[in-house]
Amino acid sequence: MTRRRPPAAPQSVTPVITNYWQVRSAAAVMTKSRTIAPQEWIPDYFSPVISVLSSPDCDRLVGKNNLTLTELLQPFTKLLTEVTLKDPEGHNHGLPAFSVTLQDFKKDPTRLINQKLMLDLVDGCTDEPSVTRTFPNGQTLEAPGFTPWFDVWTKLFVHSIPAVEHEYLRHHLGCVFAISSTCEAPLGQIQALVDQQYKHQHDKPHAYPQFTAPQSLKYYLLVHDVYEATEAQAQAVLVQMQEALGSANCHLLQINSRKTQREAPNPALVDYWLGPGHRFCNIDARREGVGPTIITTGVTMPVDPMEEKAGREEGEKAEPMAHPLAQSEKPDSPIPPVVTAPASQLKPVNTGNIAQLLTSNDIDRIRILVREFCIKGLIPHAERQMRQLSEIVTNRKSRSLFSGAKRWFGQNKPGTTGGTSVVYSKEAPELQMRKLGDLYFMFKLYKQAYNCYHSVKKDFQSDEAWNYYAGVAEMCALSQFMQNDPTKKYPSHYMEDSINKYLQVCQMPEFAVRATLFDALCLKFQGLFLEAAGSYIRLTNETKDLRSSLLLEQAAYCYLLASPPSIRKYAFHIILSGYRFSKSGQKRHSSRAYRQGFQIYQGQGWGLSEDHILYTLGHQSLLLKDYVTASQLFNQLLLMPQDYLPSLQQMCHLREFFIVHHMKEKETKHQSAEITIPKFQIQDCVLDLSQAGETYDRLSEANPKDSFQRMERVFLERISGHEVMFLARTCQSVFSPVSYVNLVPQSVVGEPIRFMVPVSNPFLTTLLLKKIHLLWRFSPDDQSESISNDKSSSSNAEDVVKTELLDSITLEKGKPCIVDLKVTALQPGDLYITGVEYGLKAQFPQSEATDYIIRGRQYFTVKGPRLSLTKEHKTKVVYGPDHRLQVAIRPGQPRLEMSLDLPKSIHQGEIRILKFTLKNTGLEPMANLYLVSQNPGMFSFGKAGKAQSSLFECPVIQDSALKVLNDNGQSVEQPLDFLPVPVKKSRVEAGQVETLELWIRGPDNLALHSFKLFVYYENPKHMPSPNTKSKAKAVYRILRREAEIKILPAIVVSAEKNPVCMFESQTSDSILLHVSNISKDLSRNLDQIQIHHISIVSHDYELLEFQSLSEDRFVKRGDSISIGLKTAIKSSSLQKSSSASGGSKDLLFSSMGGKGAGRLQHAPYLDFLKPAFQFGPTVQAPKLDEDQLVIFWEGNGQIQGQTMAPIKPMKLIESGLEDHVDSPRSTTSPLSMRSKYPCELKLEVEPRIEHSFQKSPLAMMPCRIRIHNPNPYPGDLHLQLSQANGLTSDTRLPYSFVGCLNSSMTVDTHESKVIPFKIAVSSPGLYQCVGLQFQFIQANQVIDRAKTNPLGKFVPLDVIFTTLNVPNSG
């Protein structure tokens, strides 16, 4: 990158900060601004001052170039070569870059400079390129490389300070008298000019111009126009002047070498006058567009500045001298014109009307003139003055001899010069010493000047002549600095003392400002930026806005360039500077300063500061009629939170926002502009391609993360039979804020694309949106150029994409609204949603004429999920892709519309037949349709009585990719139930409608049940042939629908299995079935439920008979019944081990009851059993988790149901028929409980007894145990009553065993015995009495019971019977 000289504060530069700044643009290299070092500022300002007095003929000749003689010479008063000066001691000193200051005798330059001129010139210096600097904390800031406006202001300010009595630096050393070569009496005219000067010097010693000595330098100039007089005439006049006045004091200047004014002046010559620089030229007051509008050149003196009072500020205290800057700082304040006699008019200066007759040779002649004047006139005169003053000072060192030269006064009189009670006479040695020091300083003899200043400083301090002391202290510090002696430190305390005296004692703020400016230059040159910043800030006040703004800006740059940099202090002071710039009318500078400060305040959470900066910048841009910038700033302002702002301030921001954009619309001929209100929450947008018309609340939570794409991959693997590693595209139809949109959404030509985005109003004022539509860009497949409705030139936009218009939306505070917009692509290609366009109007409580309706737009960008896979992702903020704003448009495809007459509610286990309608509204046929449900066993297409070739024609898919988190935070697999749709001819043609029967069974879980249905279908024209090995990908689509159905209570079923027993030579279990009718009163058809048959699905068992005597099996609402069932193990099952395969071919289906027995093995009833099975890979058969008991029931009407319950091991019940808790299924085979020492044991009990509990509270059930020993050896029978598992000693049972049951007996070989006992019960009901146990072992032998009984315990005997209450029973 191109580099240039780096700025220090950007007004001054030192080597300390070299290489800190980099140029932002190449234009910065071409800037004319440059850094001005203090070694250049100070000697150029404190240079010898010479008056220029010219005759009217001379003014006329020079005026042809739209210049005065002073203006003609001023740019060339700095010598390009070194000259030599001899000090009073006779030592020669080289004066490099020596310069003089020329001032018009007729015009006081301080009267030319006023506040209006300063404001205009400072305002004109705004085009300074910025540079960037990166700080150690990584923050990068932009700031101007230089501040030429501060240089201009400094130049004008220091030259606006008039000459005063306590210093001689601005007093004139001499006068140049100029006449023309065309005058008739040149010597007489010269004498008249000399007399005029002499009279003024002696008659008005305190008026401008003031001279240093009575015998001032006189130099005579003859101006010659080559086209008005011959060279011979000019030489003749010059000879006369040299003979009368001396050859060393006369010079001939030839100008106007160009004959015509028709040609434009040379730009290189014009830059001498109009180029940037720190040296004041009178022409600065005549620039076009600045200062007073009428400028004349006259021969009379201007009004004395002491008499001019029009420029004072109201309420300001009288100062000892009138200053041109002591007036109102308002840019439009009236400026008193310079009072002059009638003379020739000079035009305001611009690059086209100045120096039109001058050539490069004329410029060279002017430089020769200045050099001759310095060498032959000025320097010899200065040497004489130095010798005279040195002799005077040497001869008058004793102050006691000249004490009478001073007059002492008690206090200042009102209106007199403040700060001192001493007035020195002109011949006082202190003033002579000061005059000598000033001469030394002006002629760059800084060491001698320092000695003089330092010597006289003590005298002024002892005399308490504070104005003299302050001036000498100031010059003492500058003299020491200009010596450039590294062994001597810059005496900043001298300058600080001088500034304090100027401000506090002398009441001379202009001199304090001058001292501050030079002091800061010296401090910055030495790298003391913090001290320089403090010096600048000290001179700011509340009344001088322009001065304070410039000083605050320089202080800010000092903080920025300090080591270490104070960035926050820089931001604070640059913002203060911008505020003061604004008060002084410098809108451009104020805007620039605010922008610089905003770089630090932006994004730091300082809302009030950001609001103030943005509003100020926008308001200033509006006043500058920069509507584009103003609109951008107000857009950014209204992006800030507005909740904490008062309603009045909100309304102010909003009204000005509408004004700005309305003016921009007029400027851009009613083209819509980019605006930032209302707030479109684009990260929460939803792209809906489903055409289901669902609400935003439902769609915004659809397809979380990559759930749909994982499911889609499983679909393809299941249907195609091939493994799918990754998806190249997706048919997902809903893309929500919680979805991973890493694949581009797919749509079809002619299908509407729905885009929903929330929008909110952050203001208290209601906003009205009108005529809202999406902005898009479309890239057709057959074209290379994109088409957009965002450009007025796109006349064929509606031919490729149809855009729907939303009429209006009203946005109130705190009420978010959803903007639902649609577009329809009419050609294949890629569609990009770029934004939204709308009309906006604010409904203010009180309407005004500025309540405009503006047309605006907002552009959309979305960020995908933050990535955290790699180390780079974790250490940086990296977002993944999000394609919600992009849609790939494919050619015509089949499109399915599905309708399902789903009821609003259904009972638990209820079976219904629904009407399932499919309609192909696309342009192509569809085939290979599948209905996929996430609730296996809920739907089926089968019909009763139709057998299937396998257990399940299409089993449930369980894949690890379908894992989801349940309510407990556990990861569970989400099963998918694939059901082939049995359409006619295996396809649905375009426009065809198919109506099918779809069976549904109500889920067992109560409350509102939400579920999703998917329909997979393919385009048969793009399906790969089954007879080939083509790897062509099928063109498929997936229709997704969500529905809700309320599950109403019906019946609750539980089944418990008793321990093993021997019954009729078959191994059998008893099953106790509990059925409760828990339906509600609103379900009239379920007042009474009939169980018409019961089925069991098992690997080992089949139903044998009912144990209960009730044959009706009716359950009324609120009632419960218990049914005892007996099962037996098939003989084939007895030969299998417990670890035999659990495949579907080994399942046993058995039923008992009335109509419909045996239908469980057929669809749809078999499909409803899918939740009871465990499904693995497709090559494996489904496994039954637990034996299932299935109940088929009917209500009063046409309601039918199928309810199933797993058969659990028996648990004890405290009382009645209470709900039981499921326990893990025992893995022990019933055969494993058979003893190795067998016996025949039979428990005899009546299944039912009748008893009148009103007559007797206890009923006794007689029971007997028959034991037979078939073994060839005796055996011991041990009986005992023990506490059942799960019960404590405090548990009270509803029954009691009566008899000798805790006993032992010996049973001989082939002997039979009977053991009677009774069971007492106190209430009717079905009883299962547990606790009776037995053990049979070989007699008279010590045998390990663990080997005798594999369980290691007694074998339990359960007694089951029913007790009925009969009131009349005897």
UniProtKB/TrEMBL annotation:
PANTHER family: TRAFFICKING PROTEIN PARTICLE COMPLEX SUBUNIT 8, TRANSPORT PROTEIN TRAPP
Residues of the TPPC8 second Ig-like domain: 909-1022
Highest taxon in the source lineage: Eukaryota
UniProt xrefs under InterPro entries: Ig_TPPC8_1st, Ig_TPPC8_2nd, TPR-like_helical_dom_sf, TRAPP_III_complex_Trs85
Domain TPPC8 first Ig-like: 704-900
Protein name stated in the entry: Trafficking protein particle complex subunit 8
Pfam families: Ig_TPPC8_1st, Ig_TPPC8_2nd, TRAPPC-Trs85
Basic and acidic residues composition-biased segments: 307-320
GO CC terms, sorted: TRAPPIII protein complex
Region (Disordered), start-end ranges: 307-333
Source organism of the structure: Tigriopus californicus (Marine copepod)
